[in-house]
């Protein structure tokens, strides 16, 4: 899967799925013929109804599951994965939670501390280092989770509906923060969501997925420049694109 | 420190959720100011505890019940029972006096100490064995399948039926008593630890899988800490049971240094009502203290992140 460093330097495609298929032992086809690439500087969002297998894409990309057919290539070792829930360890404070991944990579205490502090500052949790997860709001827990992945300095960032459980306002704030990070850190992003407007707002490319079997039914390039103006959400072009994506989604869903 | 205090200050949940959004915004705009932390914290924490303010509301009701019981005791002893039968229920102050009676008290305290050594020794061994047993079962499904039925059997066999066998094998002394305490206290440790180890969230485990963490690291950094609340709950139950086991052991294995159970059966045989009551109360208090201690200990260790009831 992983390439050598010289190859890494020359390629900008960080994730490459070719005709990826996943069939479960009971015969259920979870994914069928998925082609998908994510390049450096791209933020690709997969939007689809629940149960369509969109999270499975991420699980294959991260190696948590493997495809039964097709080729999936990840051209970097630095992969960040943000789960649906914050998945913080409740007995660790914010700093210790953010340090976890570096700790699991056997980094020294000093390096861990430094990476964690940088990530905590990036997500705007400075001053909350000693708070336990239970003392934080849902949005702040998600930021902590984001910071934890940032310590890996990921080249490829996978997001599995990370803001799905948050209220609208918190979600919009975190969308903006995430875009800021994307512009600053220049990772390649693959984002899973069931919210069309979130998909359009965040991405450079939106892919629409339909369920049973899970397949990509449509792809839209999002023309709006980065960094994005939050007010773009209230423009006609934005609404038109959201409408198109929603339409494709509904057609793919067969409703 | 101040955040802990904020956590305990009862603010209702509805208010907390209402403030949540505001808190989020505050966090965004003023995340470097130390002053913003307290209100955010108070707002963000779901508060489940009640009556943690201490004072009369907490210890008042149980004390009232204790006074009632003592009153009832006097009443039954002096009014209900005929004078010829009043020896069945000696008045509380006479029972209390036993604790200061130089002829009886030292023996009683020594016996309690002996029982305590048996109970705590048995408990310690049960805790270690129980955790090791559960961790082993957690490592592989086949180990769990092989060993769990025996944990259940351990729980269901009447220990009293085994008592003669234990005496037969290990003698009628200290060792046999400790073994009874272990057998009675072991199961809650096994089942609680196993439950705790298995309660880990699938996504949290995947977090470790993605970093290619070894089984040992997952156990050490994820499963064991996650299991601590359940382990402490098990310890508290086992502690109470170990005391029961030690006293049961006292009754049957009276060779060597006598325990409080041996004294109780001696006083009963001699119709020594006052010391009998005093010894029973002492044994009960010991059980309560042990139970309470492990509750306190558990709260100390995991109370910061878990509502240890």
TrEMBL record, chain A:
Entry keyword Nucleotide-binding: yes
Source superkingdom: Bacteria
Pfam families: ABC_tran (PF00005)
UniProt-listed InterPro entries: AAA+_ATPase, ABC_transporter-like_ATP-bd, ABC_transporter_ATP-bind, P-loop_NTPase
Matches recorded under Gene3D superfamilies: P-loop containing nucleotide triphosphate hydrolases (3.40.50.300)
Key words, A-Z: ATP-binding, Nucleotide-binding, Transport
ATP-binding is among the record's keywords: yes
An example Gene Ontology molecular-function term: ATP binding
ABC transporter domain mapped to chain residues: 15-236
Protein name as it appears in the record: ABC transporter ATP-binding protein
Lineage: Bacteria, Bacillati, Actinomycetota, Actinomycetes, Micrococcales
């Amino acid at each position: 899967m992983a390439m050598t460093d010289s190859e890494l330097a020359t390629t900008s495609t960080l994730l490459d799925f070719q005709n990826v298929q996943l069939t479960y032992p009971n015969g259920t086809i979870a994914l069928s013929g998925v082609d998908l690439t994510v390049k450096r500087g791209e933020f690709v969002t997969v939007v689809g109804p629940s149960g369509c297998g969109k999270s499975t894409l991420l699980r294959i990309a991260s190696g948590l599951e493997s495809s039964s057919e097709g080729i999936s290539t990840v051209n970097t070792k630095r992969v960040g994965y943000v789960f649906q829930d914050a998945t913080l360890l409740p007995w660790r404070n914010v700093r210790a939670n953010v340090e976890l991944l570096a700790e699991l990579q056997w980094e020294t205490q000093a390096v861990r501390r430094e990476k964690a502090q940088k990530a905590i500052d990036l997500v705007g949790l400075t001053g909350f280092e000693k708070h336990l997860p239970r003392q934080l709001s849902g949005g702040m827990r998600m930021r902590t989770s984001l910071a934890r992945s940032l310590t890996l300095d990921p080249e490829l960032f996978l997001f599995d509906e990370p803001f799905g459980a948050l209220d609208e306002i918190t979600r919009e704030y975190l969308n903006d923060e995430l875009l800021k990070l994307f512009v600053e850190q220049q990772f390649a992003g693959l984002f899973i969501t069931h919210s069309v407007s979130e998909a359009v707002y965040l991405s450079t490319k939106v892919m629409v997925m339909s369920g049973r079997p899970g397949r990509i039914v449509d792809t839209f390039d999002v023309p709006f420049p980065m960094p994005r103006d939050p007010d773009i959400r209230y423009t006609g072009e934005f609404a038109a694109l959201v409408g198109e994506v929603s339409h494709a989604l509904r057609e793919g869903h067969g409703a | 420190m101040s955040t802990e205090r904020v956590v305990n200050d009862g603010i209702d949940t509805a208010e907390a959720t209402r403030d949540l959004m505001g808190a989020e915004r505050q966090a965004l705009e003023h995340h470097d100011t130390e002053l913003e932390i307290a209100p955010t914290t108070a707002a963000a924490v779901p508060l489940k505890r009640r009556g943690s303010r201490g004072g009369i509301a907490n210890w008042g009701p149980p004390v009232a019940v204790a006074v009632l019981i003592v009153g009832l005791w006097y009443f039954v002893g002096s009014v209900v029972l005929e004078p010829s039968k009043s020896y069945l229920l000696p008045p509380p102050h006479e029972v209390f006096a036993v604790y200061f009676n130089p002829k009886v008290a030292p023996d009683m305290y020594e016996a309690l100490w002996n029982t305590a050594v048996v109970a705590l020794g048995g408990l310690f061994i049960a805790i270690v064995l129980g955790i090791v047993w559960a961790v082993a079962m957690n490592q592989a499904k086949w180990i769990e399948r092989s060993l769990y039925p025996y944990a259940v059997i351990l729980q269901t066999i009447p220990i009293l039926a085994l008592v003669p066998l234990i005496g037969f094998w290990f003698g009628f002394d200290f060792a046999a008593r400790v073994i009874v305490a272990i057998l009675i206290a072991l199961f809650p440790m096994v089942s609680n630890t196993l439950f705790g180890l298995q309660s880990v969230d699938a996504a949290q485990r995947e977090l470790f899988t993605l970093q290619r963490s070894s089984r040992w690291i997952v156990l050490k950094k994820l499963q064991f800490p996650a299991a601590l609340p359940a382990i402490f709950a098990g310890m508290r139950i086992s502690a109470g049971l170990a005391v029961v086991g030690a006293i049961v052991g006292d009754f049957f294995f009276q060779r060597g240094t006598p325990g409080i159970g041996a004294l109780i059966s001696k006083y009963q045989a001699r119709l020594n009502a006052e010391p009998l009551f005093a010894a029973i109360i002492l044994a009960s208090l010991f059980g309560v203290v042990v139970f309470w201690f492990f509750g306190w200990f558990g709260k100390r260790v995991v109370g910061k992140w878990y509502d240890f009831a």
